[in-house]
Structure formats: structure tokens, C-alpha cells
What does this fold into?
Amino acid sequence: MLGNNIPQSLSDKTFLTVNYAILTLFALSVLYPLIYVISASFSSTEAIMQGRVWLLPVNPTLDGYKAVFEYRYIWIGFSNSLFYAVLGTALNVVMTILAAYPLSRPNLDGKRFFMLLLVFATMFSGGLIPSYMLVKDLSMLGTRWALIIPAALSIWNAIMMRTYFKTSIPGELLEAAQIDGCSDSKYLTRIVIPLSGPIIAVVALFCAVGFWNQYFAAVIYLNDKDMFPLQLILRDILIQNEVDLSMLSNVGEVDKRNGLRELLKYSLIVVASAPVLIVYPFVQKHFVKGIMIGSLKG
Amino acid sequence: MEVAFKRIRRNWQLYLLFLPPLAYVLVFNYYPMYGAQIAFKDFNAVQGIWGSDWVGLKHFEQFVQSYEFWRVMRNTLLLSLYSLLVGFPFPIILALGLNYASNRFFKRTVQMVTYAPHFISVVVIVGLMSQLLNPRLGVVNRILEVLGYEAINFMGKPELFKTLYVLSDVWQNVGFACIIYLAALSGIDPAQHEAAIMDGGSIPRRMWHIDLPGIMPVAVIIFILGMGGILSTGFEKVLLMQNPLNYQTSEVIDTYVYKVGLVSVMPNYSYSTAIGLFKSLIGLVLLIGVNRFAKKINQESLW
It folds into this structure.
């Protein structure tokens, strides 16, 4: 975009050409693993076992996806993750607004102290074991709440939202509303929240992706497989290689079984990432906006 | 005093709104800090956090003198430094390159493609790596074989662990990390570039004298944050990439804390908490130290 109308020197032209070439190569190298996995997931078990997949699907079949659909725990995990993501995100959005709005008000007594309290909590933590003991003492161990309640608020998000409130909502609005006798809580629900669509969307997106992708909390807090989020089921299959083949119909000889195991993994990677990757192009600009707001110093 | 009290009363609704988040932070952030005192005690469940016996710095000494200490510290520091030194320049280079790609469609496409992996979960990333790097079936090893090399068991080689960790991180995050630099670049006054072009400044020179100084403040902040987190490695990813073959290079403070405290057949809460606290304290000191240093030389700081 820079200097488009000015004749360029030869060396600059060369530079730009090389620049385009490097960027293209780089983008391709990011893309290749993704394309490979998608292609492998549509290939046949024989093609996978013989290593004949390079770029495009070989002997295309839907066997892998069929196996994914038959694998009961994948569905359980899927619906569990949906539950955690929806409930956790809703709770987070409410908590974030409640934390951010009072702190965005100028001359609220004790504001500096509260901010310090929040900022310090982002820099220092009691650690894994004390947090675990807390969850245990609250009798949340082994329940679904253990994945939601301890993650009910992200302080970074609250600070980000506070910056948005401070910079994007004119103070005159508050004065006008106060003159008309509007209370603080009414002002928040009638004026601030309707004006804050973009930042609420950003916070909701960050949270939803976070809940969808998290697995460690489930590792330490849950033991009932029926409550496991998808990521934990994925870990068992993809990384610990624990595939319960009895859940799949028509598995014949050993060769076929091993092939199906591999194929299932590729299809699973696609199925697990698809929800986020399909939504992402549409919400990309919100994420970008979120980063920008977050980087402002409040 | 009375005036302040009056103001507080008039703003009671604001305090009421702030109550749930305040309670959350006190319970889930500050109560564990209180609980961390068991690092200085011999915790047992019957006596509880407060009632257990004080033992001073016993657990810290035990950790520092233990056989594991140097290995774990070394792995943690090397992995973080490696991540920081490789992960820090890439987004800047990508942003500089994209900034000179004048074709909008091209720029959009590259951005779209490079952001995408950021949203893939860490479990899937590690699963993807082990599929692609699989010694027998993985595409990387098949390429090596076609080129006439021997297949390599990448995930099982201790000496490759850190490189795999760092490069996959770059692959996943470089696009997303460059967003902030692109924004800083778009904030640079075009007049500077115009003036430089009039004076015959070539693109590399403009990058060096205009673009880099323009993004320096942002870069410094990001570097500070990185240095502050130097003891906090990507715990979840390390844990997923660990296997019995690579423990000697993959065991970091966080995974060690987890194993001592929760996985071991004889979990030791106090010892594990002490190691975690040791890490948190050094991290805090580092963050404050680097920030102060940056303020001195650059007038840039986090707060």
C-alpha cells in the first residue's frame, strides 16, 4: 500500500517480488498440514496404511467419519463440551460486565485498590495444589461445576472490557442519565450494555474458544468418563492411542483394524476442529478488535 | 471522611454490582494464596491448612538440593528462552512482510491462513504432530524416506523435544501474534514514508529506520511479558508431548509440580506447593525487574 504511485527502483521491485514469494511459501507451509489431515481423513484405510496419501484423498471413502459417528464417547464428549462452553461463557460474560463496569467509572472510591487486587492476581498465583484443594473443599471434585465455577471470570477480559467502557462510552451520557434520575444498574442495562455489543462479542468468543479447547481442568477434577469434555476424549484417542474398537461395527482382520484406528484419528482431528474453524472466518475481525482493545493501556 | 462515606452510599449500586466478581477473585485467586502457606508446613488433611505444623523452608531446601532440581530448572529455562528467542522475531518479520504486500486479496488470504491454527486446541495440535511425525506412517518420515534418509522417531527423541515444541508453537501462533504489530505499523504516519521515498530511501532502509522504531514500543511490552513468564512454560502442551522416552528433556517445573502433587502414588501437597510457589515468586520478581529495566532505557512499561 505504501508508495503505490511513485515509480519504484529496481531493487525495491526485486525486494517486493521476493517478499511475495516468501509470504506465499510461508502460507503454504502453514496450510499443508491442515490439507494433509483433511485429505487423509477422506482416504481409504489401505491408502493410509500403505502411505499413499500426499496431498489429495486417495480412494475417497467416508469410513473414517463413519467410525467417528459410531464412537459413542465422541458424542458424549461433544455434547459435554457444548454444555461447558455455553454455560461457562454465559457466566463469564455476566461476571466480566459486573467486574468491568464499576471499575470503569471515574472517581469510584476504592477503585485503585480493586484494580490492584485484580492486577496482582494475574501476576501471582497460589499454584496448582492450593487451587485443587479449594475445589475439593468446595465439594466440586468430580462434578461438572468444577470445570465452570473456578473459571467463571477471566481478569484479562475484565480489564479489556473496562478499557472499552472507558474509551468508547462518552461520560456525558452518564451525566445526562443521572440528571434524568437513572440509577446505576439501570444505566448499565439500558445504556452501557446495548452500546457494548462488539466487546461483549469478543469476550464471549474468547471464552467459548477457551472452554471448548481446555482439557487440563477435566484431567484433575473429573473421573467419570460420561462427564469428560471432547478434548479429554481426544487426548485418549490421539495421544494415548486408546481406541475402543469394540465400539465400531464390522472391524475384521488386524490390518483393517489398525488402518481404521489411524483413519479414525484423522477424521477426529477434522471433526474436533471444524466447529471453531468454520465459525472463525466470520468472527475473525472481532478477535482482531479484541486484541487491539486489550493492548490499549487503560 | 464524611464526604467519602456519602459518595460510597450514593454509589451503593456500583458496589453491589462489583460484589460477585470481588467474591470470585477473593475465593479463587486469593484463597489459594492463603492455602499456599502449606509450602512452609507439613500438610496433613486431618489438621488442615491452618493447623498443620510449620517446618520453615524445609520443602524449598529439599527441592533445591534434590536430584531433580537442576534438570527441571534447566529444562524450564532452556525451553522458555528458546521459545522467546525464536517466537519473538517471527511475528515481527511476518508483519513487516505483510505490510509491504500491496495486493489486498493476497494480504487477506495470507492473514486468514496464518491465523487459523491459533484456534486449534492444544490436544489436537499435539495429536496432529504425532500423526504427521509418526515413524512409520507419518508423512514427514515418508518424505524423508523418499529423499533417501532414515525415518526418525521425532516424538521419542529427547534432543528433539524442545525444537518440536518451539516450532509447532511458531506454526500455530505466528499469524495471530503478528496482528498487534500490523496494527502498530498501520499507525505510522504515511508522511514519514513519503518523505523517505522522496529522499530515495529503499524499502529495506525504510523498514529499518521507520517501521522498526514505530513498532518498538509494542515489541518491548511483548518482550517484557515474555520474560516475566519465563518460568511458565506452556504446561498443557508439554504434558501432552511428554512420553517416557523424552522425560529427561521435557520435565519442566509445572509438570513436575503436577506429578509430585497429584499423580504420584504418594502425593506430597506441601512439597509440590513449595515448588509451585518458588516458581511464582521468581516469575513475579522477573516481571517487575524487567519492567523496571524497560522503563529506564525506553520509557516503556506495563504500568
